[in-house]
Amino acid sequence: MIKLIGCALAGLALMSCGNQGKSPKADSIAMRQQYAESPVLTAEQSLQHLKAEDGFSVQLVAAEPQVIVPVAMTFDEKGRLWVAEMTGYMPDTSGTGENAMNGKIVILEDTTGDGAIDKRTVFLDSLVLPRALCIIENGLLVAEPPRLWFVEINGDKAGKRTLVDSAYTEGGNVEHQPNGLLRAMDNWIYNAKSNKRYRKEGNRWLKEDTHFRGQWGITQDNYGRLFYNNNSENLLGDYFSPGLGAANPNQRNVKGYDENIVPDNNVYPARPTPGVNRGYMKKVLDDSLRLIRFTAACGPVIYRAGLYGAAYEGNAFVAEPSANLIKRNILEDSGYQVKGKQAYKGREFLASTDERFRPVNLNVGPDGALYVLDMYRGIIQHRTFITPYLKNEIAVRKLTDPLNCGRIYRILPNGAKPTPFKLTTDPAQLVAALDHPNGWIRDKAQQMLVDGKYASVIPLLRQRLADVSKPIGLFHALWTLEGLHALNVADVKALTKQPDVTIRTQAIWTLPSILNNSNKAAVADILIGLLIDKQLAPSLALVLPALKKLDAGMAKRLSDALFYGFPKDVFVADALISNAKDQEAALLDEVIAWNPDTNLVIRRHLQKVLKDIANRRKASQGDALAKEFPRGNLIFKTVCQTCHGADGEGIQSLAPPLNHSEIVTGKKERLIAIVLFGLTGPVEVNGKLYKAPEINADMPGIGSNDEFSDGDIAQLMSFIRNAWGNKAEKVTEKDILSVRGKYKGRQKSFTMEEFK
User: Fold this and answer.
1) How far is CA 539 from CA 240, 255, 306, 371, 512, in A?
2) Which of 1, 16, 467, 714 sits most deeply, having the most CB atoms within 10 A of its CB?
3) How far apart are CA 713 and CA 711, in angstroms?
4) Omega into 130 within 30° of 0, i.e. cis?
């Protein structure tokens, strides 16, 4: 989520950073001197340092003491803000007292209608680092690692608590734990940095596996597709419905999910930013000491609210707290794929010259404005990976303070005075609101209809399905019927005959949720009738795992038809593999018998899946290794696993594998150096080159972290050198001391070139 920057601001306007006849080094020294101090600014002062795109202005909505260290928020049907306050995060560079029970969920209200908060109500307190929340039915989901709670709302007071998931987070530090709790169009609740989704059915909570997504923040577009990012990548996302494509746990990656939507990761700060965690390294900062590329991308939101005008609809906004800015990206659909580009070169939608402006999450509100959650603090890099360089930056400019600030802003078009839409509990009016131009209103109306279990509106919703002239409202009506358990095959079949491919696609995506033994033949008939439609082929293949549970024979016939019909389509290939759990070898034999071409997409992808399966079978470490190296096992789970995976096979967009890695099992002195000081990519593992943006460009070192002794680090390396399918010499504390001595005084990360 959060990376620290440490540039300072002396309350002065930013001067030109051109060379002006001086050397870049001389300029850098001068600028460091100019920004040697970093005063804490009041909310009103900090507001003056925010520069928005021409035509927009920034309004302060709330500031301390009304809100403290906000990290996540949602709106209720009254337009009030519910905010998670992570008060305990990093009180100093060592994280002293981080587990204090001082986090809160608060309700913020504007009672006068001027857009500024004037009432604060504490709903829930005594929490440890709360990080996400979601309103559903008569309660609030609250993520307080490692638990996920459902807390009933009784007149703005917390009522009965129900434990939804005791392992909402499993390992990882604060920057690398699940978050988000996005209630998506398909009526499921999704998370970033997680492969779980949740749904409330009566008094039961359903939990299912889904695709692993992102790092901090998650959002959806008008089609219910999810978007997210990791700290070094601008925007990632899905091409298809979020609940599909995850049926085969043997398949690590599925084409069409976790796609790189905006590959341009450059950022354009409004001020020098020398205090980023690795600001001492080449190509992190430019000659004017500004961050070059994302290092803390987070909190993305798709704008779909109407207030900003047509040019902004569907745009993706991304926060970057380490560079004190918010980026705007323009997205476009190309068939069923989504591609994006930055809206500008050399500037940003919003940027600040106050280094403590830390936007960590973005939301679109009932008024159509973009809301910005600003932690407003100096330290935002977690202690696990903080470098000595950054500790010095923090100490020199006294960035430990403040700890009791926080701001929320909203961005408005100049002259706009929006009035939030008032949602009522009248079911008919809620159905009408499904067509509102503001996506937040549409989402909330759907959620209120589902939560209220308003069976009386089912005829109205079916009438709405008949109006295909406005697809977006139709999608909400469709999924509202699904949420009310009233959607049927006839509803879906009628929509699959519409000329608009987005309507046909959305209808197909609902099929797994309504499939049962009584309608499986009718569903199969729908799928058969669409087999020749190239635009629908991937979606058809993605719903087959649901059909397979009820009619394996029919699912196999449809799978064969799709393969033979679209043998070169990578999206179809991966979707079909998702329907072949534990049958990958048999499918590969069929593919080879049909066509021996070794370059067939499905053949290559099946071979990769089979190789992964074989590796995992070899990788069983048993309990003995964890007992032999208990600290190593614990550190792996809390630090390394979140990027490299519990099975050591790496996680797409984050990190390469540790299992069967020659870097891990090779010379132990090299691995020790990497773990102590970090590694900057590219890096080759098992014959494959890993580099940005496919993975994070850097692996932080932990050698300067006081939390881990040399004995701990020795255990960690011994553990990973012998876990899974690895087998290598153990590492001792003496080995760690030897490498520390060899590289005494070193701060920068290694590159693989240095080890040749």
Assistant:
1) 7, 12, 29, 34, 11
2) 1
3) 5
4) no
Helix 570-577 to helix 584-594 angle (10° resolution) is 140
Judge if pTM exceeds 0.70: yes
330-381 pLDDT tens trace: 999 988 999 999 999 999 999 999 989 999 999 999 999 999 999 999 777 7
Could you tell me if 672 and 739 are in contact, meaning their C-beta atoms sit under 8 angstroms apart? Answer: yes
Assigned token pair, 460: 């109205």
73 bridge partner residues: 83
- Give CA–CA dist 602/188, Å, rounded: 30
The count of residues in the chain is 756
DSSP 311-349: GGTT-EEEEETTTTEEEEEEEEEETTEEEEEES-SS--S
Q: HSE, CB side, 13 Å, CA atoms: give it for residue 198.
A: 30
- Rounded Cα–Cα distance for residues 439 and 436 (Å): 7
* Three-class SS state of 29: helix
| 3-class DSSP assignment, residue 164 | strand
User: For residues 676, 680, 686 and 690, what is the CA-based torsion angle, rounded to 10 degrees?
Assistant: 150
724: left (phi over 0), alpha (psi -120 to 50) or beta: left
CB atoms within 10 A of CB 607: 14
Read off the pLDDT of residues 81-138 as tens digits, 9 standing for 90 and up. Answer: 999 999 988 777 677 878 889 999 999 999 998 899 999 999 999 999 999 999 999 9
Q: Is 25 exposed, middle or buried (0-12, 13-18, 19+ CB in 10 A)?
A: exposed
